[in-house]
From TrEMBL:
Residues 67-78, 86-104 have a biased composition (Acidic residues). Gene3D superfamilies: SAP domain (1.10.720.30). This is SAP domain containing protein. GO terms for cellular component: nucleus. One of its GO terms (biological process) is poly(A)+ mRNA export from nucleus.
Length: 240
């Protein structure tokens, strides 16, 4: 038979999900719901087309390509517009989808990206995933305590905590991803301004627990070496 839009989309989504799960960053929340709704629509549209085609003669099939495509477009337009409007409405509520697409986290720091990708595969004794509501509350709390910049949790950090609320690892360069409740108060200890700081790690001691209040210490290597990610949305190093 001819290649269906639903089959193409389903193949792309399947491959994407497999890649994200392999790297410990599964699709979840509103994005996953939207994908499921689109798949359901495409499947029902495909089934309707197959029923129509089964009632046609071979002669009718040879001349029906253009009319079937027009019907497919008519069937797709209302549902896709509805999903887009719903997605846009959700984006207006929490400014998530549109704004998180603007920056390109980790592009200028490939070593940091490599670290994040291998965290999920090495996870041991995983905690339960953090609900989106708790992540939003953490973001709001951090924003209230950091003056002079907009705080927005990088998408990869959200995915990390949606995967698990902290876990142990046996990696040479990182030993633990901290549970969210253990990092909730740490960023508030920073004393410097909101300007960028070129940090990937910092060493925690009595004089300088955290270098900057917008940098979130989410992982540790041993007792003193801490990994941070920049949640200052307007910063050049946002998401690094």
């Amino acid at each position: 038979g001819s290649l269906k839009h639903a089959n193409v989309f389903r193949y792309i989504v399947t491959e994407l999900r497999a890649f994200l799960r392999t790297n410990g960053l599964p699709v979840s929340g509103r994005k996953a719901d939207l994908i499921e709704r689109i798949l359901e629509h495409l499947s029902s549209s495909e089934a309707s087309e197959e029923e129509e085609e089964s009632g046609k003669t071979d002669n009718q099939r040879s001349h029906s390509w253009e009319s079937e495509e027009e019907k497919e477009e008519e069937n797709d337009e209302p549902s896709i517009d509805h999903n887009q409007e719903e997605s846009e409405g959700e984006s207006d509520n929490d400014d998530d989808d549109e704004e998180s697409d603007e920056p390109e986290p980790y592009v200028s720091d490939p070593d940091f990206a490599k670290l994040l990708r291998k965290l999920g595969s090495g996870a041991q004794d995983r905690g339960s995933p953090v609900p989106m509501q708790h992540l939003n509350q953490f973001q709001q709390k951090l924003g209230n305590n950091v003056q002079g910049c907009k705080i927005w949790l990088p998408d990869d950090l959200r995915q990390l905590y949606r995967f698990a609320n902290g876990f142990k690892l046996e990696l040479e360069d990182v030993s633990e991803v901290l549970p969210l409740d253990e990092v909730s108060d740490a960023p508030n200890q920073g004393t410097k301004t909101h300007h960028d700081l070129p940090l990937e790690r910092c060493h925690m001691d009595d004089e300088d627990d955290v270098e900057h209040p917008a940098w979130i210490p989410f992982a540790m290597n041993g007792d003193y070496e801490c990994y941070l990610v920049n949640a200052n949305y307007g910063a050049r190093t946002y998401g690094q």
